[in-house]
Amino acid sequence: MFSYTFQWKQAFARLPEMLDGARVTVEIALLSMAIGIVLAVLLTGCRLSGNRVLMAVSTTWVELARNTPALFQIYMAHFGVASFGIHFSPFVSLLIGITFNNAGYLSENFRGALKAIPDTQTRSARSLGMTPIQAFGYVVMPQMLRISFLPMTNQMVWAILMTSLGVTVGMNFDLYGVTQDLNALTFRTFELFALAAVIFYVITKIIQIGARLIASRLFRY
């Protein structure tokens, strides 16, 4: 017989601590996306470069990022490299794991976006006297980012949710880690995790709505 008594006051009393954890969660996701986008652009360039070594490195990264669990990637960033004498804090390990995952997925998004841009765009830019780098930076990249902007939003949402895996490597000051610790102190499992789920939901909805507003302003034409 279910005899659990909900005590929401205890959970709401811990809301400030959970919001502090939510701030850390958003920081990790933003950092992982910023670094991931830079790495993804490099990976895309390597994959389209025609150089076999660079193509092999990029393809291996993308295959591992897309076809292994995010939990495995975070574990390897924490426990895997530790076996070689390299030790990262839980924060750094979580950041590395999520960034690795983001870069792999975003690279494929960018590659698909590039293929959607006609080669005539680059040739036209080159005919105007632009160098290959200028043609890519001024003509191709803006179009690539426009095409892949909304898929990037999905990856940002995924990055927010992936932070909950940090608890497996000892991360205890992000939203999920704080909730886990509070649960151990108060035993208000349902209330605390329900509250954490609501906070996760609100964060991801804000990101989605914000992305749509930004897209409507930036990509009107």
UniProtKB/TrEMBL annotation:
Its main location: membrane. It is a multi-pass membrane protein. The chain crosses the membrane at residues 28-50, 70-96, 156-173, 193-215. CDD domains: TM_PBP2. PROSITE patterns: ABC_TM1. Keywords: Amino-acid transport, Cell membrane, Membrane, Plasmid, Transmembrane, Transmembrane helix, Transport. It is found in: Cell inner membrane; Cell membrane. Residues 18-211 form the ABC transmembrane type-1 domain. GO terms for cellular component: ATP-binding cassette (ABC) transporter complex. InterPro entries: AA_ABC_transptr_permease_3TM, ArtM/GltK/GlnP/TcyL/YhdX-like, MetI-like, MetI-like_sf. It comes from the Bacteria. One of its GO terms (molecular function) is L-cystine transmembrane transporter activity. Belongs to the binding-protein-dependent transport system permease family. HisMQ subfamily. This is ABC transporter permease. The lineage of its organism: Bacteria, Pseudomonadati, Pseudomonadota, Alphaproteobacteria, Rhodobacterales.
